[in-house]
Amino acid sequence: MLYLLAEWLQFEGLLNLVRYQTARAGGVLLTALLIGLVIGPRMIAMLRVRQGKGQPIREDGPQTHLAKRGTPTMGGLMILVAMSISLLLWMDLSNPFIWACLAVTAGFGLIGFMDDYDKVTKKSHKGVSGKTRLALEFAVAGIASWIVVGQINTFLYVPFFNNLGIELGWFYYVFAAFVIVGAGNAVNLTDGLDGLATMPVIIAAGTFALIAYLVGRVDYSTYLGIPHVPGAGELAIFCAAIMGAGLAFLWFNAPPAAVFMGDTGSLALGGALGAIAVATHHEVVLAVVGGLFVFEALSVIIQVFWFKRTGKRVFRMAPIHHHFEQLGWSESKVVIRFWIVAIVLAILGLATLKLR
Prior knowledge:
Number of domains: 1
Distance between the termini: 38 Å
Number of helices: 14
Number of strands: 2
Strand order of the largest sheet: 1-2
Order of helices and strands: HHHHHEEHHHHHHHHH
Radius of gyration: 20 Å
């Protein structure tokens, strides 16, 4: 809104900064952070009253988690509200990439909300059936992919090579939807300890804020040998909104958590990262930057597959963060070490921009 006002009223001097993506990225980050910190206490109190006993805790999980009974879930609502308000204030309302990513965030957030609501009302950790969730997620991702791919081409670009793209044709739409759904569920699986998913999401969003800005600039993208996507630079503002809202949520989610993100937040944020990766033509780089999420998802897939085939477990418990808890690592040790891994992977992801 402020950007369109700046264009319409021809802001000058200091107010002209509103036209710059970097300035608006800083503005949206601080706005989302402030909104999240302001609404956080009231929203947590409201969730605690409405949910009563809070998110159900698995009896077969780590015994240390039983002390978390009564902690409210659906804290992702705080993130979504802070993001949405700040984005509407600072983003270019005419940019289709922003609206596509916002649609994924809202759509996946709604699916996650349905799942969290089902868990709380039925006092069970199962929630909505997996098939129903996936069907809804692919429907949302399919629409978003149609919007995004309509603005770009259908090439899959390979890191470490200058503008090397593989033409996927119509299959790119399927691939894009798969990336969005996969990212959403990978982050969802990672969200099992206080702060574990939040900081890696913030790190990944910060990384893609830089990638989006570079991809949106023809001069930088040409110099680096990465695909140029006109208009994608605006996604740096979207990423900054994720960072601001995520930091505000982390204030309340830091151990011991006053609120859990729930599927409402984790599905929404993961889906948003997937949509951003598709829009910037850096889907493969997302697998590097979000390698922690990939590792968490793979641990579940491997565990289920191997157990069905042999009746034995590869890990003591999946997702993988619970395996390390079962090995005797404290929750804070698992969280901080996983944060370190996320930082290293983000640096490796950024390295792909230059090593071409």
